[in-house]
Amino acid sequence: MSHQAVPSRPWLAGYPNAVPADIDVPLLPTLAELIVRSSQEFADKPAFISFGKTLTFREIGAAASAIAGYLQAQGFRKGDRIAIMMPNVMAYPAVMFGCLIGGYTVVNVNPLYTVRELTHQINDSGAEAIFVLENFASVVAEALPHTNLKKVVIAQAGDLLGLKGKIVSFVAKYVKKVVPAYTLPAATMLPDALRAGAAAGMKPVDVTLDDLAFLQYTGGTTGVSKGAALTHRNVAANVVQCDAFLGWAIRPVPDNVMVTALPLYHIFALTCCCLFMMRIGAACLLIANPRDIPGFIGILQKTRFTLMSGVNTLYNALANHPDIRKVDFSNLKFCVAGGMATQSAVAKNWKSVTGCSIVEGYGLSETSPVLTINRPDLPEFSGTIGYPMPSTDIELRDADGKAVPMGEAGEICARGPQVMPGYWQRPDETAKVMTADGFFRTGDIGVQLPDGTFKIVDRLKDMILVSGFNVYPNEVEEVIAQHPGVLEVAVIGVPDPQSTEAVAAYIVKKDPDLDAETIRAHCRTTLTAYKVPRVIHFREALPKTNVGKVLRRMLREPAA
């Protein structure tokens, strides 16, 4: 099918021929239907791989049904919020799918949260039960008296792996080292909950597209953490959009395996790895601890994989590790990146190591998450965020809400079936980000290129003002990252009496002899004078979120 560009969607002309301009929103399945259907359609195919053990679609479907049955037997009703606090272990998809088919709302909790952060999220969401990996149970125990949680279920890393003897003791040893002591006498262990739920059976639930599937909390990088209320329609639409735009390139590959290193409680991995793979009958290779790069590479050496997802810092860390050359990348067909800007130096290095280009996309928790993505048949990394998804409108607007001309920078505003109805119980915050004509204001600045693709310039709030000129940190980082002596870099604005703000660069060295003057000289070759960093700090490491996103605000706090 070929596309005619329409005035409001000039990007359609750049779509691959196989991709429709729109998806059929009225015919979307709920996530509950998607899970049940795939469990039957792909019953004997591998669905999840963890610690060398595989669960089939049938097995994960049965575990989900048992979780739903357990929650029903405990008196929880459709619409109740259930929190999950786990990294990428086998228990996570089983519990999440059980909540979704039971009509419950999943509250994804970062397992690295402190007692204060966990307490806020449980109380804000109104969650009444939590499933937690035992490594993080001590935090739940401390937060418990300050919440209305009625039920705590504790999982162990070996749950659902059906392991025997030596392997059980290996997983226990691998994980037990990091299990702080906790006291939760009323808690239930996950295998007991599964047995009870299977015995009780799951009663049918009428789940609709308007029901809330997830409360996906924003990282709190812009103030208090808020729950993006995502319906079954929002997330299912995004899964179908991913399939429409990418499926024609991915589906023909037999027995796809997606390397899932980003945590499933993060919206990127949740939709693009877990639920998208569920829809197309592909397996997720779960990486429980992606920060352990040698361990991660060891897993890649032992497993055949065809697809990979990651963020810039992860691709960078893998490509720079000496053991990466021992991994067989011959089956790798597609690498997707999101979550933060991918630097061209990292993409180039990754392609030289693996032979596979990085295809970058863009989205947010509030948009389930994918708004735009590059073509999957892209021969080289483009440095853009690609084309808007089918059924998605994107406009760049100025501070007054007016559309800016092609080629000019403006705030990225988006409308589509994947965009949330609003923030959980925060009409004031919702009003700040939703326009009268139904567009969501992302807070990111972008430009539209003549071919219809979009390029991110930066976060609105990260822009640096030097003597009245706008400096975008991404641009300066991109230039510095190309110096061979640089491993990682982050750029922020610091207060300056002469020029309002000065450009400051924080650099992790690859070459121990690298100095500040060398960096400035390198920058002067491609950046105008006011963009060249005036302040340069060398660091052993940069502060990052658990997903590997560099936290500029953490650099800004001591600087301020």
Keywords:
Rossmann fold, alpha/beta, 9-stranded mixed beta sheet, GMP Synthetase, Chain A, domain 3, 2 domains, globular, 8-stranded mixed beta sheet, 16 helices, 560 residues
Mind explaining what this structure looks like?
The chain folds into two domains: 17-443, 3-Layer(aba) Sandwich (Rossmann fold); 463-559, GMP Synthetase, Chain A, domain 3. With 560 residues, the protein is α/β, with parallel strands linked by helices. It contains 16 helices and 26 strands. The strands form five sheets. It has a nine-stranded mixed beta sheet. Strands 7-6-5-3-4-8-9-19 form an eight-stranded mixed beta sheet, with helices on both faces. A four-stranded antiparallel beta sheet has the order 17-18-20-21. Helix 2 (57-73) crosses helix 3 (91-101), helix 4 packs across helix 5 and helix 11 packs across helix 12. The mean pLDDT is 93. The longest helix has 19 residues, at 232-250. Helix 9 (267-280) links the parallel strand 10 (257-260) and strand 11.
Topology:
Elements: H1 31-41, E1 46-50, E2 53-56, H2 57-73, E3 81-85, H3 91-101, E4 105-108, H4 115-125, E5 129-133, H5 137-143, E6 151-155, H6 165-176, E7 188-189, H7 190-200, E8 212-217, E9 227-231, H8 232-250, E10 257-260, H9 267-280, E11 283-286, H10 293-302, E12 307-310, H11 312-319, E13 334-337, H12 344-354, E14 358-363, E15 370-373, E16 387-388, E17 393-397, E18 410-415, E19 422-423, H13 427-433, E20 440-448, E21 454-459, E22 464-466, E23 469-471, H14 473-481, E24 486-496, E25 500-509, H15 516-524, E26 535-538, H16 552-559
Parallel strand pairs: 1-11, 3-4, 3-5, 4-8, 5-6, 6-7, 10-11, 10-12, 12-13, 13-14, 25-26
Antiparallel strand pairs: 1-2, 8-9, 9-19, 14-15, 15-16, 17-18, 18-20, 20-21, 22-23, 24-25
